Structures
1.
Amino acid sequence: MACSSSPRPTKVQEFHVYEINERDRSSPAYLSLSQKPAHSLGDLVPFTNKIYTGDLQKRLGITAGLCILIESKPEKKGDRYEAMYSFYFGDYGHISVQGPYLTYEDTSLAVTGGSGIFEGVYGHVKLHQIVFPFKILYTFHLKGIEDLPQELTAVKLVEPSPSVEPSPAAKACEPQATVSNFTN
Amino acid sequence: MASASSLKAISSLCLSNPFKSSPSPSQTQRLLGLNFSHSHSFPTLKSTPTHQSFSNSKNFPTAAFFGQNQKTAERSTQPTKVQELNVYEINERDRGSPAYLRLSKKEVNSLGDLVPFSNKIYSGDLEKRLGITSGLCVLIQNVPEKKGDRYEAIYSFYFGEYGHISVQGAYLTCEDTYLAVTGGSGIFEGVYGQVKLQQIVFPFKLFYTFYLKGIADLPAELTGKPVAPSPSVEPSPAAKATEAHATVKNFTN
């Protein structure tokens, strides 16, 4: 086989996203399909939450996907899930991810692909849980794409803490506090 | 566990319709306890294929794939090296897996059925416990003429401190398949490529050959000479017992 394949661009771009469950999207939907009292393999958890920029000043869109309960870890007072979901950024497009979600510690998920400005993307994303299960901070490490717009990257990260909240304007989706056609 | 000879007999069959006559969850559990005479208690795994469906597995359409990225700056002109990695996935029946969710509410395996699962994985030489698989098989259709089922599978392989590899693709209970490697983390960050799935004993033993690109050379611990797949393969007693020298660091459990 000739070495005809161009190597993928390897410049890494980072940006942050806050995922916040404002409890107004009927999420999560915990499906106890294992039919056992404790969390067991078989339970499925579809979910969808809102996402904001790292400075919590703009509403970006939503997450949407599925967590599959793999096993309960009583010694860690938490559970292991296999998660597959996407982040939607309005007109910018979306990023899909797949990997572990442990309710008791930070994890790293694979970035499996994307659309729009994220078309061809690969890399990984670090998931940092702030308040289980309502507030999560993500740090994306992306390769294979053009330089990201300033709207997403030129933000001063609000340091994660249990009390972080989106700005009132972002929460109210005022036009200057959202990306174009933010996903809802 | 059933004797090797009955396992051989099972592995030579292409099993299908696991739940044709036993839809209830309690019956599922009983079947998992192992009743080979009715077999196929459960999905997730494959049967011995006699013919590979993908003859051109290595001629991956990379040119087409990368065509769309030409607009971005390229940082390297090195050719994309393929690394092979072998993994055994073994269901030791101690993880409550699989969980066949007959959501279609039909007696025959039908679209709507979902099968979450999680099994143990070992290095190709069966000397080290690596971690686990975890994910979901989505029943797509029952294929009666092939006496099997088609699933769409989305799952990950966890390698302890090394990280994980995520995959997605077709799982056919009657054939070997190739799944897409969609990404990874840790030493597998940025990985892409495909993985060949070979069923050895339905549904308990599978042999994978990963064809990985985009990552640094794999550690020697993972690339030992693989044991040739056969129905009687077993992890080494030390690996099964997860003795310290027979696992990767912080193997996933």
2.
Amino acid sequence: MPAQVTQISAVTAAAAHVLCLAGLAAAHALAGRGALVSNPALALRLLVVCEAPVVIAVFSYLRRDRKSCSFIKAAARGLIGLPVGALLNAFGAIVLGAPVGIKYWTVTIYWSLLMSLFTFVPAACVFGASKIDWQNVLSHSMYVLDFYFTPTDADNYIISVPCHGAVLGAWLGAWPMPLDWERPWQEWPICVTYGAVAGYLVGMAVSLVLIAVHKRRVRAKSD
Amino acid sequence: MSPPASHRRRSQHLRWPLLFVAILAVHSLAVYLFTRGFLLTRTELDLHSSRDDRPPQGDVSAGCSSWPPPAVDRLVIVVLDALRFDFVAPSTFFPEKHPWMDKLPVLQELAANEKTSARIFKALADPPTTSLQRLKALTTGGLPTFIDVGNSFGAPAIVEDNIMHQLVKNGKRVVMMGDDTWIQLYPEHFNKSFPYPSFNVKDLDTVDNGVIEHLLPSLHKNDWDVLIAHFLGVDHAGHIFGVDSTPMIQKLEQYNQILEGVIDTLRSLSNPGGTHENNLLLVMGDHGQTLNGDHGGGTAEEVETSLFAWSPNTPPDAVLSVLDDSSCNADLNGEEVCISTMQQLDFAATISALLGIPFPFGSIGRVNPELYALSTGTWFNQKMGTDACTSQNDLEAWMSRYAEVLCVNCWQVKRYIDQYSATSVIGFPSEDLQHITNLYSRAQANSSASFRTTCSSEAGSQDKLEGKGSVLPQQIDAYTDFLQTFAKLSRSAWTEFDLWSMGIGLLLMILSVIIQACTLIKLNTICQPSDQKSHSSIIPKFSFAFALVVIRAASFLSNSYILAEGRVAHFLLATSCITGVWYSMVEGKFGVENLVFLLLNIFARFGIEIGMSKQLPAPAITKDHSVSAICKIFGVTSCETLLEIFPIISLAFVAYIVLKCLSQAICQRFLKYFALCATMASYVCIAFHWASETTLFSHAGIVQEFGRSLSPRFVYAIGGLSLVISALYRILGPTDHLRMNQRITILSAIMLCSWSPTILILLGRQGPVVALICMTGAWCIIKSQQRHQRESELSVAEPVLVIQWSLLAVCLFYLTGHWCTFDGLRYGAAFIGFDHFHIIRQGLLLSIDTFGVSHILPILSLPFIAMVWYNTTSKDNKLKDVILNNITQVLFMYGLITAIPATLTIICVTIQRRHLMVWGLFAPKYVFDAIGLLLTDLLICLASLYYN
């Protein structure tokens, strides 16, 4: 029931996003400038290694059912969700035409783990196996524009919007790949990763705005 | 209130097909206008040079007075079709040695050992690199026009002035042997000819053996001045097997032997003082080919061919200072070989100068100095006006002779420019023309000075000689500058676009698309009882569908996306599938067809990758990496057996499914038995045809003959018969006692079963796999449609599904190994069941193969998505209306989905008309899209009549 669920304040949401951002920034700092182009496997590995604990910790802390579920359990759900989400993401990428040669295997695995961290793990940590919540998150893609009409569960924005941003960004990031510019970053999965990260960042910003607007509306309504 | 239903229906019966006919008419008009503006290129002038033409002896062009004197008595031209540059040049010139290199060692040895008389050239052709265009360009010295590509099947005689015409007019006798395209181009120009049919690509040897039979005996005879021998084996081997193949290497080795024979014969004939002293041998390609054996476009591999020139008598050593020694390299034996570069455009002018005939009127080439110098005759026959200056050394004499030739050359080109500007509607840009004229007058002004210096110096004082030594090269440079500038100008600006016509065509197209879209929206609101629920759910779907179409259409604005069109279409298809999965997860009902569609996408994607790399010529599936990896495990022989048998087994599977579907779909007894029998017979014939082509079984001659040629014809005949029967059934068949659903099902089932075996046999061994992908895709989409209807309780077709249908069709086009250039046509398919070329018959088969799986089948099976599976209204009469409306709507949507990308292609072609790749990539894409659009419109018309 929404009443029992602890509401996430805008500040908490901002803090969570800042932490996730810090994870990305740390990976970037460790890998160095341009590492994604020169050595994508290493850069992606660093990204996954830095981001995974942050995301799992943050979203396990924000878990939905505080009463029945401990922090450790939520984190375990996240850990299980990581490979499952990676599998789904890799499957989606291959359906869309990602190359499958032997030389791409490692980067594809790291990339899908990263995508899983952006999309699947947060939801797994927060919701666990709650089917309705998952559907809510998914359906946000359908009704993200008319959020004025669906004022329930504004907290879902913190998960759903960055997730959709990452997926859309990755999808858009694939478009430069066939161009004949012959740049190294057109290789799989470099530009897709750039797109996903960019989309994720945009998604975070948008989710913060949405949460803030939503809180204000709720407050106005209660007044 | 409203007219009775039957009356309304009757009026609709006619109204919708009429609408489709109107769309077809508008599109045809638009395409016609645009094509006329876009593909109209060069005005062909039918003026001819004649021996008496003289440069006016005015003040400007006083330098030269007559056509150059002959330097070569007999010319032997051996044309090796599709001769890549690396077939001739030593492998040391390339970063990597490949198996097909160094297979013509006789040429390399000559080039290395007789540096002064033999030379390898890299000849650069201009696109389009198809044989007919190249032959035309070689003989007229002009730039070929794109519209001729369309004429390539029925080569018309050349009306422009050309070398052959000049040869005949000047009493030279020409003997031709080989490719019969020459006879089509020059029906009355040869003294003697031995033509052989060139269109059966599977036949590697007929033409070559014919040439071999006549070549050496003809060399010994005295009844010719120019001998042309055109070999086709390399071209055909490339088309069928690719460059890296044993037949190709065997062909090259065979040519090496022939060339050795030719060279020995010529050497023995050209004794000093003999009648054939001034022979010249040219071994040349008309164009190159890619590693897959394709040509037609403008890539380096297709454009770079080679020319080898050898004169049996050695010119003086001074020739070495004319020849370019900038690109020399050691060959395999450590000897130094030098290679020059020339433009194929220059060929006609050079040959005319060598043979001493007037240059063709429309030639815009330059006499190539190196090729000109290689002929001994240009060094010794100094009977020109320069005999006053006897003290000249060889080189200076040659240079003054060459300068005179260039002078005539420039005058002739200038004459052509003036004539062309005067007669053609759109000439060259005036500032460019002014620049050219300036260059010309500068060169000619110099010339009078330089020729005066050449001959005035009786005393031959030292400083005069020195002055002349620098004046002549300057003069040659000035001429060269003029000629090259003009060649560049004509290359960049030749294509004469009629912008008005193009603009009107484009405008018409855009208007028709807008009207189509408006009508579709209106149609939707008419058909749809506008209740709130359906309205809100249909808008995002429409916008998603629209977005997919627009993204795909917009991708045509870049050449990279046109090249990757198959992958783009697949990407969008996969996106729509994933969205479908997403949607069904949100709804909480996950259907199995979504998953199957995703898996199908993976298959389609690998198929497209294989198809687009065109590594799938009929039996050579082994080239595919994953398959060859499996082959390594199992061993080669068993793998080949497997590959031979696999198509037949999968064919049996396909046949089983088809028969099962047919027996369920058709409930009329006679039709059912006919369809079953026809399908069964067709599939048996197909299997028999494939079995007879394998090497696994040893067949008796008659059996093999039946399998090879009769059984495909049998399949075509059955297809035609069932087409007739389906049409008859549509016209005469009982309609009343059948429910509409059943009727449509029967109609489309027999329609599909009459087309599919023909398309299947034309697709070759990939056919069954493609058919399976087709059927699975259709099943998935129809299942989705059923679910959509069940859930929304609306009978309207979902736009996204129609888009998926059309994207799947595009994917199938690429999956079956086609792509949008003329070398992407699968010419081999046109010869299944026939050995000889016939323009209508083979053209029909080729178009069925090209458009069958991507246009004919998808459009004819569209009613399946329009069917109402879950009857919400009880009245059959109402249902009939709903179904008919649905079919119209779906056909309309499909037409719009085809028209939008076609419009964008036209816009793109208009924007990119000066692009480097316009003839190689954009124009073929435009032609394919235009034909596809008109074919789609036509099929939609027919379908709307047939299913009405």
